[in-house]
């Protein structure tokens, strides 16, 4: 097992965002975290990435305890995430947005460019080539010199994923990557997540797009009011009465409305 979430509880004052949530993600899985708005999904991402401490419980990744680590040290353990609201550098080029993501893995500091040695120039070229590879993977290699802010919405989301991949994660957390995407963009995203899986990167996915979730996830956990109400394969979740009542039924009603 690669990720172990054990008895996580998180309170914000009087709000119980998560109550005793436990699940495990196996190496190489695409694992979904689904549930209605406010169920605690993003809070779980924030706890896993140590953006804030849990009230109780522990998160382990590859047998290392993440709970209590500094957020920037979490990236070094091989865990990286994207955010619900796109967080790119809009006035930087597409290529530079990705090279920035590699800095936690490089030897020269960000300022080393001021006095460039041969070794630093070679490292820069390596970074550029790696970034171009990632842009190719996400289908943005024709846009390397465009400013991030000029990309279409779906492209910006894919660029965010490329930037996250630049830190060479073994666990990638995607927070609603299909939000606001049209059908074609969602389909491209499905293919991209499959390619990421082929690279043996484990994926934890928060997503409301149920057709995508059911197609791409190996297993998933369902949260409702901060509690885990089910866990299983897409088939098991689709046929779980409690999940249908708490969430899936409601999603369908919203789609029909
Ligand atoms: P959505 O699908 O809408 O993104 P979610 O399942 O990700 O929802 P969370 O964003 O984790 O849900 O929120 C769970 C609960 O915790 C909500 O009641 C939310 O208002 C609360 N909450 C989340 N973050 C904070 C915070 N930093 N301070 C106070 N309350 C918070």
Please describe the structure with a list of short key phrases separated by commas or semicolons.
single chain; Rossmann fold; four-stranded antiparallel beta sheet; 9 helices; 2 domains; 39% helix; alpha/beta; 257 residues; globular; binds adenosine-5'-triphosphate
User: What's the helical proportion of residues?
Assistant: 25-40%
* Unreliable stretches covering 5 or more consecutive residues: none
List of distinct ligands in this structure: adenosine-5'-triphosphate
Whole-number count of domains: 2
Order of helices and strands: EEEHEEHEHHHEHEHEEHH
Query: How far from one another are the termini?
Result: 41 Å
Assess the beta-strand content as a share of residues: 15-25%
Number of helices: 9
Total strands: the figure is 10
> Major sheet: size, sense and barrel closure?
6 strands, mixed
User: Going across the major beta sheet, what is the strand order?
Assistant: 6-7-8-3-9-10
Give an overview of the whole structure.
The chain is of the alpha/beta class. The protein folds into 2 domains: 3-78 and 169-256, 3-Layer(aba) Sandwich (Rossmann fold); 93-166, no CATH class. It has 9 helices and 10 strands. The strands form 2 sheets. It has a 6-stranded mixed beta sheet with strand order 6-7-8-3-9-10, sandwiched between helices. Strands 2-1-4-5 form a 4-stranded antiparallel beta sheet, covered by helices on one side. A hairpin with a 2-residue loop joins strand 9 (219-224) and strand 10 (227-232). Helix 3 packs across helix 4 (118-137), helix 3 packs parallel to helix 5 (153-166) and helix 4 packs across helix 5 (153-166). It is globular, with a radius of gyration of 19 Å. The N and C termini lie far apart (41 Å). Bound molecules: adenosine-5'-triphosphate. Adenosine-5'-triphosphate binds next to strand 2 and helix 1.
